[in-house]
Specification:
By secondary structure, the chain is mostly helical. It is built from five helices and no strands. The protein is elongated, with a radius of gyration of 17 Å. The model has no long low-confidence stretch (mean pLDDT about 95). It binds fe (ii) ion.
């Protein structure tokens, strides 16, 4: 008879919490990039992009909270200081970005990085039998792939 798995693998789950912290750090930089382009965008596309970036940072804020609370659920502490975020994030920090194309490119690049991290976590959470994290990553990925498609279409 096959042994049934009794839930997530603890060692793998603690590694997952670390990966989720890396995702959290990147999300925080992404979030602030969105705020900065929401504020600083200039030109004929102002109204559309100003609003689109607001929609995206509100979405990012929700995801940030989900990631942090997932880390707590897994028994670890979400990183919570700007200095820790900057130390762990690989998303480029956008500064003085006000041109529409530059802004959309920055956000598209940021989402690409997030998707890479999310796909790694999706794969690892699958191997750790961590269904909760796996389902969350799966949701994030499908939503953000769609956003990336729209940003790329805008840029094309
Ligand atoms: Fe605003």
């Amino acid at each position: 008879m096959e042994m049934k798995t009794s839930g997530p693998d603890e060692k793998k789950v603690s590694q997952l919490a670390k990966d989720l912290n890396e995702l959290l750090a990147n999300f925080q930089v992404y979030y602030q990039n969105l705020r900065s382009v929401h504020w600083n965008i200039k030109g004929k596309n102002f109204f559309v992009l100003h609003e689109k970036f607001e929609e995206l940072y509100n979405d990012a804020q929700e995801k940030i909270d989900l990631v942090a609370e997932r880390i707590l659920t897994l028994g670890e502490t979400p990183i919570h200081t700007y200095s820790d975020y900057l130390n762990s994030a690989r998303i480029p920090v956008g500064k003085n970005v006000s041109k529409d194309e530059h802004a959309v490119k920055l956000i598209a690049e940021s989402i690409k990085e997030l998707l890479e991290i999310e796909r790694e976590i999706l794969d690892k959470s699958d191997r750790a039998d961590d269904e909760g994290t796996n389902a969350m990553m799966s949701d994030f990925i499908s939503e953000q792939e769609k956003t990336l498609w729209m940003l790329k279409s805008w840029l094309a």
